[in-house]
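On clarity, I found the account of how folds are encoded harder to follow than it need be. Since the whole study asks how a given chain folds, the encoding of that fold should be made plain. The format is easy to grasp once an entry is in front of the reader. For illustration, here is how one protein appears when written out as sequence plus structure tokens.
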Amino acid sequence: MKPILSSSFILPEKKHFLKLIDGTKKPFTWISFSYTYWQTVFAILILLTTFSCKRDLDINPPFEGEKLVINAFISTEEGINAHISYTTNPVGEFLESKPRNVEDARVLLFEENTLIAELQHQENGNYILPLDDGFVPVAGKKYRIEAKSNKYGEAKSSEVLFPEAVTISYVGLEKISAEPGSGSSIKRGLLSLCL
């Protein structure tokens, strides 16, 4: 009769034994890799990815020259703010720290294809039309900005539909109790917002 194996292992000094029910030990070979094996494999993979073959490619994508870039927003609270800058060549050397602001632009605001105003230059390529100049954006109207520069040419933004104001009918703080059965008597607040 063959002895039945138990589920306990005795692992003295990297040798594995199966403990049989009758108390005898039988050598057992476990196919596994040591911790140092995996460290070595991981180190080799790191070295291969770090020092792998590298080939510089000479890619010269088309670049039509520096052009104006318009970034702007319109608000009923702050009026119109626009930042005018220019593009740079995607290849070659350029400095991140070098400002690309356009200081000589003429920036115009249009409402439904009608010229409304010229934005005032502030500094660092920023142009504004504050609300105190009498301009208030109208909901449902389309707005666009055009910028012209002697050095960089001209650019037009896409038309933007100014949205209707969101009306909030109720804002309140309601008291709710802790979850039933949690054993906690702590009260928590819940902010309700109804649009």
Remarks:
- Confidence is low (pLDDT under 50) at residues 1-13.
- The first strand starts at residue 5 and ends at 10.
- The chain is about 10% helix and 40% strand.
- The first helix runs from residue 35 to 50.
